Amino acid sequence: METPDVRAVVTGITAEVLGVDEAALHSANALTDLPTFSSFRIVEIVERVEEELDTEVEAGELTPDNLSRLDTLVALFERTLRTSGVPG
């Protein structure tokens, strides 16, 4: 099985759902700083990334600290994949 590029998947889906380009994501201090961010959108981002990576994040991992920044969101999915046995 090919190792997924978690950062590329998370970044691409997040940019698409929030309707911003990837440069805006990288320059934002936090996802919550983006005007299109909402709690509904973060749920959509998580669900779409889970589907794309064929994994499921544990409910206890869905904390504001893990979901508020692009880097922590990427790290969340990397941990989830490692835990599930998929190299990340």
Describe it for me?
With 88 residues, this protein is mainly α. 20% of the residues are buried.
Overall mean pLDDT score?
92
Distance between the termini: 11 Å
Overall helicity: 55-70%
> Over the alpha carbons, how many angstroms does the gyration radius reach?
12 Å
Number of helices: 5
Shape: globular
Low-pLDDT stretches are: none
Please trace the helix and strand order, writing H or E for each element.
Answer: HHHHH
Organism: Streptomyces dubilierae
Domain Carrier: 4-81
InterPro entries: ACP-like_sf (IPR036736), PP-bd_ACP (IPR009081)
Protein name: Carrier domain-containing protein
Question: Which features does this protein show?
Answer:
single chain; 88 residues; mainly alpha; globular; Carrier domain-containing protein; ACP-like_sf
Question: TL;DR?
Answer:
With 88 residues, the chain is mainly α.
How are the secondary structure elements laid out?
Layout: H1 6-18, H2 22-27, H3 39-53, H4 64-67, H5 70-83
Helix pairs in contact: 1-3, 1-5
